[in-house]
UniProtKB/TrEMBL annotation:
Organism: Stephania cephalantha
Keywords tagged on the record: ATP-binding, Coiled coil, Microtubule, Motor protein, Nucleotide-binding
Stretches assigned to coiled coil: 367-444, 582-609
UniProt-listed CDD domains: KISc_CENP_E
Residues given in the record as ATP binding sites: G122, Q123, T124, S125, S126, G127, K128, T129
Biased composition (Polar residues): 1-11, 610-620, 638-660, 676-691
Protein family per UniProt: Belongs to the TRAFAC class myosin-kinesin ATPase superfamily. Kinesin family. KIN-7 subfamily.
Protein name: Kinesin-like protein
Residue stretches making up the Kinesin motor domain: 37-358
Length: 974
């Protein structure tokens, strides 16, 4: 059976990336590169109808299976060679199947991790496409047959297809955007075709279908010699990866690419009677082929040949590995037998003769997981040490050089082991630190033990303290088992859950109260603006209607009876009831959310329609920033926000309260004579409310301090101040409503999370898992702290790996990574992130190759959309390198990250290296620090943990690099 784990993905890039990201091929146990000549065969086709029609003669004959001769006249024999020998030659009667047998070994070596390329070269209409189609078909058959006969390995096959047409690289699997793809130079991967789509093949049928798409998309035109002449060079690339199945205890993988290359005709333009478009094509075709010929010629001369001009054409750049590099290569040269094409056939044979001399250095591309590598190195060190301690007398005969090499290797290994030890010690000290912290916390808050928190929120594997070593390395095997693992085991206690549900309900209740209060204040505020313009009046009327609606929602929700948990009833009965009740209330929170949304829109409109709004733009900016900074100080999920309400909602229409700060700020540096309001403001808070009269004048009751001074003030200025203050009130309410909305959204989400846990609990109960038994009285709080820290480390590793698999935004990864460092309070966020990513991973796997349907006006989520978004994000970050880092800083980074200082696209090359190795802790830490610097994110700075969660859940968030994320409420689908 072939691999069923393969999810259908579309990823850009070339297969080299896979190798480069893993341990290089020079890993222990990997076979060395093997020198091997290119396999060159020649195929003679039968005379075609055209040739027969003009009574053309057969000029060539295959005299044995390696020799082809030209049936020449004695004179001709003097001027040109007439006999050519190759690895194989095929007479016109030979079937493609026979031709395939000669290149089969090359093709199938891709299954063993060796890159392979099969070319067809020859003049137009000589049978290149005819031959390559058959070869590809047969290779696909054999590949899948091999997979079937090799059950001990997991295989995955991906395909990409491109054509080089008029020196433009076009993606044959994505003609929409892949029309002129760029070639990038990657210092490690070589030439990379940017944005080339790669699709995973589900099975042989699917692979054939994808190949047929490539062929259908290829440029074809009519020439004098061929009605359906291929006008481009086509490369179909299969990337074959395989690894031994897990239970075999060895985690080595092979990865290799297999290229099927159907070149465009090698004829001269005059021969095909081309002009216009065909002539232009011919020029480009010949440019690429000329470079190919030069490259082959130079390579055939061997090492003396000096510079090899791979870069002179796109074809040779892309196929560089296959020409004298790390690949096995076979070339099938196709010939027309006709006398009229002798010259072209000779050219082809001369190319073939050169190609015979080219030597490649193919090697097995093996990936060994870091874990395995460490084990291997440790064994090797132990072996070498033992060898040194008890030297074998025969070994002494070995040269000194050999023993020096050994010493060097031992030193190297010791260094690596030292580094591993250091990392382990670091992790241990972190655990220790965490344990201490937890003990301190428990001392100060004995009611909230870490164990309680864990019981309440964690649904992943609970680790016993002596599992430490295991937990640290467990990340490796998590990809496939993660979903099952997290859902299977639960340590959630039912009563704690119900308690949590109650707490949420209280919070909901409280939010409702606050919303109601805010609306009352808003209602009064709105009343003060009645004398505004017509638009404002309409908005106000609408707003009031919405407020009434909201109040009725609130009243309805108040009708819900919240009963206490009955300790005498069974856990299952209680929980079932809880779920039913939560479901029945489901719409209440959603309604509240929706209503708040409407109110906010109306407030926005109201603010816009205020008469002085236009000339207030600067002021508005100030107010915005003030509102924002005030909002930041508030805790959106605090247990009670009554203090915030007081801060935000002042007495309606009272400049003395709400705009105090604004006015204070405005009055700074002002003439004290005109500074009445500031002096009033400072005097007390219980001032009478001034009102606006018909003519816009502001009046106040006689006898109040305000009135007594009014004669000496500039009334216009005062009126303006009142108006500003009123507007500020509305803005404050708007900010508050925004905050309420966020809190309601969070509440909604927390409720969903709890419901999930309750359901999970039920499932466990149904499966006969005794939840209460899970309570282990002997487990100390200290153990719980250590256990959480280990869980955290494991979860974080899982998250990092899933980020990588799901191609999640690296800005998101950075923020998350830097914010959540293992605090007990981080549990919910870790949990949420893991759930989202597990969902996303499953979603991508289920989606497979199908195009996701758009959901409303939201962009559909798919792996390819995430990849595209991530690409845009990397481009964005690359631009930021200029603005955020000095030239010296950039150069230092390029050097550190092995980006050539002189290379093109250095910035993008560098950014493309960030967050690419989920298994390297140092790499992750450094990537996060760099991205944080580029986006201006600092810990404890402009992103709080609470907002973090919401940022990714808001449906209105259209920032491109967040495509691929869905509101959590949609993900959980409750
Ligand atoms: N060995 C063969 N036996 C029978 N027919 C063949 C053979 N080789 C090629 N043909 C036929 O010759 C015609 C031209 O072949 P094909 O299109 O493969 O040529 P080509 O070299 O790819 O040409 P171009 O470079 O113009 O694309 C086709 O109709 C094909 O079916």
């Amino acid at each position: 059976m072939y691999n069923t784990n393969t999810m259908t993905v579309r990823t850009p890039g070339t297969p080299a990336s896979k190798i480069d990201r893993a341990t290089p091929a020079s890993t222990p146990g990997a076979p060395k590169a093997k020198e091997e000549k290119i396999v060159v065969t020649v195929r003679l086709r039968p005379l075609n109808k055209r040739e027969q029609a003009i009574k053309d003669q057969v000029a060539w004959e295959c005299i044995d299976d390696q020799t082809i001769i030209y049936k020449s006249t004695p004179q001709e024999r003097l001027i040109a060679p007439t006999t050519y020998t190759f690895d194989k030659v095929f007479a016109p009667s030979c079937l493609t199947e026979t031709v395939y047998e000669s290149v089969k070994n090359v093709a199938l070596s891709a299954l063993m991790g060796i890159n392979a390329t099969i070319f067809a070269y020859g003049q137009t209409s000589s049978g290149k496409t005819y031959t390559m189609r058959g070869i590809t078909e047969k290779a696909v058959n054999d590949i899948y047959e091999h997979i079937l006969n090799t059950p001990e390995r997991d295989f995955s096959i991906k395909i990409s297809g491109l054509e080089i047409y008029n020196e433009n690289v076009r993606d044959l699997l994505n003609l929409d955007t892949g029309r002129n793809l760029k070639l990038l130079d990657d210092p490690e991967k070589g030439t990379v075709v940017e944005k080339l789509v790669e699709e995973a093949a589900e099975n042989d049928k699917h692979l054939r279908h994808l190949i047929s798409i490539c062929e259908a998309q290829r440029q074809v035109g009519e020439t004098a010699l061929n009605d359906t002449s291929s006008r481009s060079h086509q490369i179909i690339r299969l990337t074959i990866e395989s690894s031994l199945r897990e239970n075999s205890g060895c985690v080595r993988s092979f990865v290799a690419s297999l290229n099927f290359v159907d070149l465009a005709g090698s004829e001269r333009a005059s021969q095909t009677h081309t002009d216009g478009a065909r002539l232009r094509e011919g020029c480009h075709i010949n440019l690429s082929l000329m470079t190919l010929t030069t490259v082959i010629r130079k390579l055939s001369v061997g090492k003396r040949s000096g510079h090899i001009p791979y870069r002179d054409s796109k074809l040779t750049r892309i196929l560089q590995h296959s020409l004298g590099g790390n690949a096995r290569t076979a070339i099938i040269c196709t010939l027309s037998p006709a006398t009229s094409h002798v010259e072209q056939s000779r050219n082809t044979l001369s190319f073939a003769t050169r190609a015979k001399e080219v030597t490649n250095n193919a090697q097995v591309n093996m990936i060994v997981s870091d874990k395995q590598l460490v084990k291997h190195l440790q064994k090797e060190v132990a072996r070498l040490e033992a060898e040194l301690r008890t030297p074998d007398p025969s070994a002494r005969i070995g040269s000194e050089v050999e023993s020096k090499e050994k010493d060097l290797r031992i030193q190297q290994m010791e260094l690596e082991i030292e580094e591993l030890r250091r990392q382990r010690d670091l992790a241990q000290s972190q655990v220790e630190e965490m344990r201490k912290k937890m003990l301190e916390q428990q001392a100060s808050n004995p009611f909230e033990s870490p164990k309680q928190v864990k019981k309440c929120l964690s649904f992943s594997v609970s680790l016993s303290p002596n599992n430490e070593g295991k937990a640290l390395v467990r990340g490796d095997r998590t990809r496939n088992t993660m979903g099952r693992q997290t859902m299977r085991q639960s340590s959630t206690a039912p009563f704690t859950l119900m308690h949590e549900i109650r707490k949420l309900e209280q919070l909901q209740e409280q939010l409702g109260e606050e919303a109601k209060h805010a609306l009352e204040v808003l209602q009064k505020e709105v009343a003060c603006h009645r004398q505004g313009n017509q638009d404002a009046a309409e908005t106000i009327a609408k707003l009031q209607a919405e407020i009434r609606d909201m109040c009725s929602v609130r009243n309805a929700s108040e009708d819900v009876v919240v009963r206490d948990v009955d300790p005498n009833r069974s856990v299952g009965a209680n929980l079932k009831e809880e779920i039913t009740r939560l479901h029945s209330q489901g719409s209440t929170i959603a309604n509240l959310e929706e209503q708040l949304e409407n109110v906010q829109k109306s407030i926005d409109k109201l603010v816009l329609s205020l008469p002085s709004n236009n000339d207030q733009s600067n002021n508005e900016e100030n107010l915005k920033s003030k509102t924002h900074s005030r909002k930041k100080k508030m805790l959106p999920l605090g247990s009670s926000n009554s203090a915030n309400i007081q801060n935000l909602i002042r007495s309606p229409c009272t400049p003395l309260s709400s705009s105090r700060k604004v006015l204070d700020a405005e009055s700074e540096n002002k003439d004290p004579e005109n500074d009445i309001m500031s002096s009033d403001t400072r005097q007390g808070s219980e001032k009478p409310t001034p009102t606006k009269s018909e003519d816009g004048e502001v009046s106040s009751r006689e006898g109040t301090p305000c009135y007594q001074r009014s004669s000496s003030v500039n009334m216009r200025k005062m009126q303006k101040m009142f108006q500003n203050a009123a507007e500020e009130n509305v803005r404050s309410i708007r900010a508050y409503v925004t905050e309420l909305k966020e809190r309601v959204a969070k509440l909604q989400y927390q409720k969903q999370l709890l419901v999930c846990q309750v359901l999970e609990l039920e499932a466990n109960e149904a499966a006969g898992y005794d939840i209460e038994d899970d309570e282990n009285p002997s487990e100390t709080q200290e153990e719980a702290a250590v256990s959480w820290h280990l869980t955290f480390l494991e979860q974080r590793q899982q998250i990092i790996e899933l980020w990588d698999i799901c191609q999640v935004s690296i800005i998101h990864r950075t923020q998350f990574y830097l914010l959540f460092k293992g605090d007990t309070a981080d549990q919910i966020y870790m949990e949420v992130e893991l759930r989202r990513l597990t969902w996303l991973h499953q979603h991508f796997a289920e989606l497979g190759n199908a195009s996701p349907a758009p959901q409303g006006d939201k962009p559909p989520i798919s792996l390819s959309s995430s990849i595209r978004a991530l690409k845009r994000e990397r481009e964005f970050l690359a631009k930021r390198l200029i603005t955020r880092l000095s030239a010296e800083e950039r150069d230092a980074l390029y050097i550190k990250w092995n980006v050539p200082l002189e290379g093109k696209h250095r910035k993008l090359q560098f950014v493309n290296k960030l967050w690419t190795n989920p298994h390297d802790t140092k790499h992750i830490q450094e990537s996060a620090e760099i991205v944080a610097k580029l986006v201006g994110f600092c810990e404890g700075g402009n992103v709080s943990k609470e907002m973090f969660e919401l940022n990714f859940a808001l449906p209105s968030d259209k920032r491109p690099w967040y495509i691929g994320w869905e509101p959590i409420s949609n993900l959980i689908q409750l």
